[in-house]
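User: Please predict the structure of the protein below. I'd like the answer in structure-token form so I can feed it into my own downstream comparison script.

Assistant: Understood. Taking the following sequence of 731 residues as input:
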Amino acid sequence: MPSGTRIAIFHDDSEVAGNIAAFAAEANLELVHPASPTALEIELYDPLIAAVVLDLVGPRSGGFELLERAANAPSRPQMIVVTELDSKTIESIRRLGNTKGLKLRVFRKGEDAEDLRSFIVKLEKREVRFGAEHLEDAIMRELLHVEYQPKVPLNAADEEFAVEALCRLKHPQFGTVYPDKFIAIAEKHNLIAKLTDFVVCQTFRDATAWHKGGLPVRLAINVSPELLKTHEWCEQFIRRCTEFGMEPKRITLEITESQSGATLDVALGVLARLRLKGFTLSIDDFGTGFSSLAMLYKLPFNELKIDKSFTFDLQRSPEARALVESTIGMALRLGMKVVAEGVETDAVFRELRTMGCEHAQGYFISKSIAAGKVPEFFAYWNSLMKSELLHEANAIPKIAIIQSLLTDLLSEESGGTDMISARAVQGDEEVAWESAKKIPTLVLQGDVVEALARCVTATRLLERHPERVALKGKIQRLRRLLEQELVAKDDLELSTPQSRVRLMPRRDVLIGRLSSGKAVDVPIGCRWLSRGDKNLRLFAKGMEWFIEDLGSTNGSSIGDRILTPGEPYALPPGDTVIEIGKCIGNPAPVAIRLRRPAENSSAVVMSLMADETQLTYPVQASKWPSWREDLCTQWVLFQGRISLGTSTDGALVLPDAGAAKAAEIWFEDGFWIAPCAGGSLSIADSQFSERAPLPADADLVIGKTQLRVMSFKPDPDPASAEVPMLRAKSR
């Protein structure tokens, strides 16, 4: 397929023309055959013409005069002369061409065929470049479209939202053409009025739809200083406002100060007229152009936009900070609105707010989005600014991630490239898309667990799509924030139909009644037990567990062995029963059962046993008022992980868990839980297939067993505590 580079053959010799055609085909070049000198000169306006092959003799050669005109044509082609002239004449032609600065090569017919082939094969390739004719065609064919970058108030109480209209061009031949290129072409080739009128009409149509939907958003439209050199554009723009019924007070015209055109006397008259009509005039890119202060003084601007180069450096450069602070102060004293562009981090967002800046735009807030997504964006932003998130310690980082994620979702659903297009996804990508796009709403509604579950799902599915690494990174960062928000770091209590289980990730605990002198880790309101450090100590050394009597009043024994105070007893795997206050010939009134589960030998499960018939008598019951609750409680002390399931070899036995080992719990700067193979797990009605934080005040379902997870803090006086049981439901 031809490369686009072309060679013009204007030679009478069919043999030469045939050879050139063969060489051109080898080099993937396109041939043109002008029929006359006039046709040749027309062809030479084409920038893709890289060479012209001709002779200086013959009926239509045109001689050296034609060669000179062709060599200086707009395409500046390489001139290739193929001739039968003698060597002396050829040398003269070369010298004359060099004298005139022509790109000229001369070859003798037949003798220099291989050199000619090599020259044509290595000929410099020409590329088609986007130019004025392509831009004008794009405007006429409506290949351009308008996107909108939101501008938001930094004060949450201010509800004046705005968008800046940004023109985009995706050309069928040249692909994406960036504004800095096509706007420069438009200004140079007198197309800027047509381009701006296209943007104005499209923006007014979109604004009409927003207004009908209840969103009276302010419009910001960029105006080139080139348009201010005459009154024509101003009159056309005012007519468009009347045509579409647009109120001037809802429109901001942004004029860049980077070109001197805006300082002309004519421009002053145009701007004054627009200002008197009620339009807001904004000086764009303030601080980077020719005459910033002079423009503020002479021209009727009433808004100032701080250039993004200063915003980017706000936290890195003391000079940039000083300039931003002084600019904001100056603008406010002059009664001007202040907008900062290029806001890309939460820290800059917060700092600008404290400096008194009123409005901001940038990637922290949103990229440019399609018109149909503007109402949805501002609904989200309004919810974010008014939500309880602002009062949380990690609110701004979370808002930053949500906004960034939301922007990707909105822009991609409109045809962007940063995420998965809703119109093109299939299979697991579609599930990832559906999971991701609901995350911002869930966080705003306070459903943190479900938001986390969707983060987990989307991240897992996106592992199969490395091209989505940017999106996955954002979701993972939000996932970590949500996990830290949910994970419980205090001791937890799980309530089941039969018992309460208190999870204690400890290696050393005291067991007994509360004492004012010594804290008790496992408080039991039983008066057969002693207070504080005169009770039992349960502790681990390495992977082994020990029980030690610290000098209890009523004594303790294991079988026939009385525990000697100060001498630790090593707990074997399985069950160990410690009897408290046992008298010869009578059963012990209370006993402690310590179980080292086979599946979790690094854990100890503690429970209480007693002769309940004795405890029904008022005298005995007074020694243990909370006995009913304490006998239904288990304490799980552990290092590493503990398992939950139907197996009696696990730390926590759940008959309806659905698997012998349905889930695992561990403590790592907080409690975490994960389902095992064959197990199912849900937290607060959200399903999890992998690791999740274990939160307090939530329902936990493992298999068909529902548990209530609560923070556990010992009562000041457990002897008098009557804690109602929380009933669990089976599913």
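That's the full token string. DSSP finds 23 helices and 36 strands in the chain.
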